[in-house]
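worker-03 picked up job from queue 'complexes'. Input manifest follows; two sequence lines, order preserved.
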Amino acid sequence: MQQYRRITAFLVAWLLASGTALAETRIGVLYPESAPALLQLYQAIINGMSKAGEVQVQGRAVSERTSPEEVIAWAQERRNQVTVALGDIPPALTERLAADAPLIYGASALNDNARPGVSLAASPAQMFDRLRQIKPEVERIFVLYRPQSSGWLIAAARTAARQQGLELAAIACEDAQQAGAAFTRVLQQARPGTDAIWLTLDPVVPLNQLLPVLLRESWDKHLVLISNNPVDVAKGALFALYPDYPAMGRQLAERAKRQAVRPTLSGPEASEHLRGAFNTRTASHLGIVPSERVLRGFDRTFPEEQR
Amino acid sequence: MSAVSRHLLSALCIAPCVLATHARADDQMLLMLSGDEQMVSLATGSPQPVSKAPAVATVITADDIKASGATELSEVLETVPGLHVSRSGNQFLPIYSIRGIFTRYNPEVLVMINGIPITNAFAGDRGRLNGTYPLEHVARIEVIRGPGSALYGAEAVSGVINIITKTAKEIDGTETGLRAGSFQTYDGWIQHGGKWGEVDVAAYLRLGHTDGFGGTIAADAQTRLDRNTGTHASNAPGQINTGYDAIDSRLDFSLDNWRLRAGYLGRPNAQTGTGVADALDPQAKGDGRYTNLDLTWHDAKFTENWDVAVQASYFDIAEPVTPVHLYPAGSSLPRALPGGVGSSIGMIGQPQHWERQHHLNLSARYGGIARHKLQFGAGYNLYDVYRVAAAKNYTNGAGNVPVCLNLSCSVVEATPANGLLFLTPHSRRSLYAYLQDEWFLAPDWYLTAGLRHDHYSDFGDTTNPRVALVWDTAYNLTSKIMFGRAFRAPSFIEQYNINNPAALGNPDLEPETVSTTELAFAWHARPDLKTGLSLFRYQMQDVIRFIANANGAAGNTAQNAGDQRGSGLELEFSWDALAQLRLSGNYAYQRSIDETSNQDAGLAPHQHIYLRGDWRLAPGWLLSGQVNRVADRRRQAGDDRPPIADYTTTDLTLRTGQLHRDVEVAFSVRNIFDVDAREPTADSSAIYIPHDLPLPGRTLYAELRIHL
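worker-03 finished. Artifact:
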């Protein structure tokens, strides 16, 4: 009798354990072998993914020496239901994986309308909401984009702008020369105090070259520059929202779970869990006196020294 | 074509294949968007200081330090515009001379570790047996030129140096290192940053030894005596004794709003430089021990508008020494008593002291008033020189000539009763309060005004204001005009020295003060070129000096007897000339007048030039070169020795982390051309050591760091 009870208890425990396992989505994460600073970031994202409910997450670093066969063997051994590719993973390593299980992407700008995953691009709705809080006088937002890269983001931005009562002037460009010419027109027609320029992660805008001119012209014309990048804020943009990596990991895991049951889901989504950087010097120039509550909504303020 | 369009197109023209070049690689983008402080600093150039008030400031990061090849604090500070590190013969201690203010004990500079002063009340310096501070565990060093007493209190006269140590996150793992170099110099250290349960822990331990660089001085105080008395006792020509052992450790625990830190700096077997009385003494050794502990509670979101911090700290200083030969055996001093012995023994002393300090500080920031940011602070300090010990074989006879204490000229323990102690235990308490308001006057205009009042139990009260007007003149230009008044408290030596006619204390001393006006510009001329210009003018009053007694009695007494004025400028730049090459440098000019003599105050360089190049030869390889020129130093009034020679030193450091994944290797050569660089002797040392103090010649080291 006692033995019978033991067997029953074992079977119940086994069933419970396997039931839990069956309810969990097995996610395999590929990330590039990189310098320690980068590895920490990938690890933060993977840790974030693990904290999402009902997932089993396992990461695997890959390098130039890793063969597609090794990756496939790893995925099959783990019975991955979804694969997540973080950062710069050679397509040769992922192409064959995609045939067996859904493949999504993360830790990248995802400048491709057809690429499923969570982009480093910040949610336009949150960008515009924050802009309205800080500078309610803004009526119009200019943004330059390449339709094939950021069409998905601009579509979301149009909806967000409409909801906020903002006018979104989205200008399509195919290359850097067109972007330069478009910015020339934007700066000529921009209205001081009520126009903003939104800098996205779309590579069609060569920011390394254009940012100094944009900063100077925006300063002189009292235009608001907002960005996806805290470094731009350190240089003089008013504010930036950028991903909180562990939270972005959770969002990526949720997306993976959805992708596992609906493999036809396509396209990127913007990061919804964001950190913020704010430039008090630029704010002062624009006549903005941020309240303590607004300032505390940002994780970093620039310039770092007190004025 | 409009100006804007010309600018935009020319911006594009200087970079062909723009799209390809600026498609941000995922990795780089991931790093940049991490908001990591280091990453932002790398992308935007040099980081800004975490200064609590407008100031002219320099920040040196851990990466800067490693690249420069510096292994201790003085080598880093020499690179700061307007700051020159000179030397005092006694212990070969560093003198941080900022903007021409140069004194032997150097109490006009406030040095802090993690925002807590390490000033010793005894002499107003950072310890009589501690001339070096290691750098492996330093995250950044912030140097503010100009007055800082309105926030930081005493000693922030010519500048403030704040050493900020690495947190657990900044160390991130375990690093161990070894360094070996010239003059039998060895260092080994280990540091760890990680978690202990929920607690962040940073720990550091370093052991070191050096024989000292052994520069030679041709003559010392005994040489002069020998000349007058026909003796041959001097150890000069001989080597300056700069050897020491080092034990340094730090612990840092933090959990939520709490932080507990402890530090120990030990300098056993510290030699005496040119000797306590400027006579070489190869045998004497000190054992400096400096221990600090602080507990901080900080809640940045105490309430919606309040950021509050409370800090209690303790600092213990012990400076025991072996018996010191003020004059060596064979000297004519002290003079033998009739029928006694004398000259075979030499003049022996053993001055020692122990000090402890308690500090309690409350600070708060309030952001609840539109257009204003308020800072408040109040605190209490106790400085307690609780034990003084001395032994000696001499006393002052007629005409202040040292004579033996007894027939055998043996050493006698000093006691208050026998009148041989040089100082009796004293303590001092101070209370202070400060207020600062940063007022957003109008777009682009800020006015910061602050006031601090200090009450000292011995010399009374002092109030010091600071006002700064900041104008964001253009998107790439900021202009500031600043005024501040600062003070330094008289040291216990200056107040309470007894039984030493050459330097008697004066309990009636007032604090030294300085009033400084500054005009500063920060101009980012191009995205890759940052420049800064600061102009200053200062007036020091009530400078404390030991001067001849006015009542006809032989000897000197500390007096508020000097005034000094000065003016000058500092120009600095940092230029990313190529993606792999950063050039930076600074030029400082100052002229200071001693108003007693109405002549140049002397000693500090009128001109100081520093140039540096950091070249990333290949991924993971960095070659750093620096050139330092110290020029145009005048003698003090009344010192008719030949002018002090200018010098230019050149250093090279090669560092790589490419040889093995977790290993970093560096080779450094300092003063590569073996230039004869010298720092001036001053005051009485000018007479005794006439050929000034040599600095180290060519110095090499190799360093290995392993990240475990």
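worker-03 released lock.
The longest strand of chain A covers residues 25-32.
Residues 141 and 168 of chain A are 5 Å apart (CA to CA).
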